[in-house]
Design goal:
Layout (H helix, E strand, L loop, with lengths): L9 E6 L9 E5 L5 E2 L15 E10 L2 E8 L5 E2 L1 H5 L3 H19 L11 E2 L6 E2 L6 E2 L4 E10 L2 E7 L10 E4 L6 H13 L2 E13 L4 E12 L9 E8 L12 H12 L2
Parallel strand pairs: 2-5, 10-14
Antiparallel strand pairs: 1-4, 3-6, 4-5, 7-8, 8-9, 10-11, 10-12, 11-15, 13-14
The structure holds zinc ion.
């Protein structure tokens, strides 16, 4: 995963009243939250050829102004999962930009009273002029855990991932639940075992669709692996040489797997 913080080079700011100059950074998304890249796989250099729905200034990156732009279009737009394979830098800031794009699209009307919302002058917030409800970008906490038993790592095959053979146990935090409770519950639900020595490692913003992934390690305590056959098809213990790695090293999942492999050397 990316070790360097985006915020070393990024100064957060927000406005709808600043327009891009020729040298600025344009994250142009279509309605399917796909990112525009030109023939050289670079970001858009101008908005001249687009039908722009909205354009929001989101701060300065490496001294240049960055914008989230939503447009109509299908050609030359790419799923962020594919873009992320290209470079870590792209992941860094496109991942933030798409969350701003999603937030603005999803809160143009108040969820409580259906009145058109108004953008705040300073904060990244949409407010309802009728009932006062404030709408901030929404982030969903999720957990991912690398469970080990001696020199083996537990991985499971999810029914919703065609392209991933086995992955670490992961899931969203439910309302009213602590992060730690979420880990124990997900592990029990998905593979039917108890864990101990749960330790937080690090986190990663993961915009698929809007997760904040909290990465943990844990040790096997008791129970036999039992999967539901619905969400989880199979689960088993892997020695380090048996693990099939992802193509990309960009995710916290890959980082946790790497930590496991390094620790068994
Ligand atoms: Zn309202």
């Amino acid at each position: 995963m990316i070790e360097k913080s985006l915020y070393e080079n990024y100064h957060i700011d927000f406005s709808e009243n600043i327009t891009p100059d020729s040298d600025d950074i344009l994250f142009v998304f279509n309605e399917n939250r796909e990112l525009y890249l030109d023939n050289d796989q670079k970001l858009a250099k101008s908005l001249d050829d687009f039908n722009v729905n909205f354009c929001l200034y989101i701060g300065d990156y490496n001294g240049k102004k960055a914008f989230v732009v939503n447009v109509d279009g299908e050609k030359s737009f790419y799923n962020l999962m594919d873009v992320y394979e290209l470079s870590h830098d792209m992941y860094h800031i496109a991942g933030k930009a798409v969350l701003v794009n999603d937030w603005y699209i999803s809160h143009r009307f108040c969820g409580r009273c259906a009145t058109p919302t108004q953008i705040d002058e300073k904060d990244m917030m949409l407010i309802c002029p009728k009932c006062g409800q404030m709408h901030y970008p929404r982030i969903a906490p999720a957990i991912i855990v690398a469970i080990r038993n001696d020199d083996q790592l537990l991985m499971a095959k999810h029914s919703y991932h065609d392209n991933i053979r086995y992955a670490l146990i992961a899931g969203f935090v439910e309302p009213g639940e602590s992060i730690e409770e979420a880990v124990h519950r997900e592990v029990m639900e998905e593979v039917g075992i108890k864990i101990r020595n749960l330790k937080y490692q690090r986190s990663q913003s993961w915009p698929f669709p809007n997760s904040l992934m909290l990465g943990f390690t844990a040790e096997y305590e008791s129970g036999n692996i039992k999967v539901d056959g619905d969400e989880i098809l199979k689960a088993k213990w892997f020695k380090k040489d048996e693990i099939i790695r992802y193509a990309s090293d960009i995710s916290i999942s890959d980082w946790l797997i790497q930590q496991f492999i390094d620790s068994t050397d």
